[in-house]
Amino acid sequence: MIRTVAETGSTNADMLALAQAGASEGSWLRAERQTGGKGRQGRVWESPAGNFYASTLVRLRPTDPPPATLALVAAVALEEAVGVFLPGRAQLKWPNDLLIDGAKLSGILLERVGDAVVIGIGVNLAHAPDLPDRPAISLAAQGAPAGPATFADVLAEAFSRWLNRWRGEGLDPIRHRWLAAAHPTGTALTANLPDGETIDGLFDGLSHDGALILRLASGERRVIHAGDVFLI
Fold first, then answer.
1. Buried b (16+ CB within 10 A) or exposed e, 31-60
2. What is the rounded distance in angstroms from the CA atom of residue 11 to the CA atom of residue 156?
3. Is the CB of residue 75 less than 8 Å from the CB of residue 176?
């Protein structure tokens, strides 16, 4: 079920509260506008009307793959949904960005409370914000208009399908689909790690648990589990 509100502070914050109150898996909350939207690492997420802002809820089960890999589930579902409106143009970038021609189209934010993982997704459908550290792009600017309500229906269906595969088949099919939709092996990347270290290398795939692998100039393969990654 997708519930839509005209305005809220943050759909993720609202969904976290709903999760604590017992909301069921599969619930979606979409806002026409957010006044306190946020991205990864506490960044402000600009939220003008016309773009897509929504959060959904997954209730973890003991047999599920690692919860952090839900970011890959959300990413492949999002890439598929965008492809309905703009086929073959969007590429995934680790950990959870969708790009068009190297510019940011969307973002994904995972937060957890108890056995619930809340997944927030924002997509630039009509407007692209001015970001301080990277270019941004919208679907409308690519001649692919998509209304937020219609996009919500497409995304919710795709996410449900990929979530079922994650549960039933494990991470491997999700990982393979992610790699098929990502920038090519050998793409030059720079990774800013949580401890302040910066690493440059070439994209060399994902580990079995979904971590980023970079091949350094020395030939070493470095596995990265957290960080901000940029195309060079």
1. bbebeebbbeeeeebbbeebbbbbbbbbeb
2. 15
3. no
Q: CA-to-CA distance for 164 and 71, rounded, in angstroms?
A: 14
- Asked if pLDDT for residue 41 goes beyond 50, the answer is no
Report the distance separating Cα 103 and Cα 82, nearest Å.
14
The encoded tokens of residue 33 equal 């506008």
pLDDT(44) > 80: no
Identify the H or E element spanning 156.
Answer: helix 148-169
Per-residue pLDDT reduced to its tens digit, 73-96: 999 999 999 999 999 999 999 988
Residue 36 banded pLDDT, cuts 50, 70, 90: confident
**Which of 11-25, 30-44, 72-86, 141-155 is predicted with the least confidence, judged by mean pLDDT?**
30-44
The residue assigned the tokens 């957290």 is 226
Asked if 67 and 60 count as a contact pair (C-beta separation under 8 A), the reply is: yes
pTM for the whole structure: 0.91
Q: Are the beta carbons of 59 and 39 closer than 8 angstroms?
A: no
Residue 11 exposed, middle or buried by CB count within 10 Å (0-12, 13-18, 19+): buried
Q: Which residues 6+ apart lie within 8 Å of 22 measured at CB?
A: none
Axis crossing angle, helix 148-169 with helix 70-85, rounded to the nearest 10: 140
What end-to-end distance do the CA atoms of the chain give, in Å?
Answer: 40
Length of the chain: 232
Q: Which is nearest to 133 in space by CA: 103, 153, 165? A: 103
CB 109 within 8 A of CB 38: yes
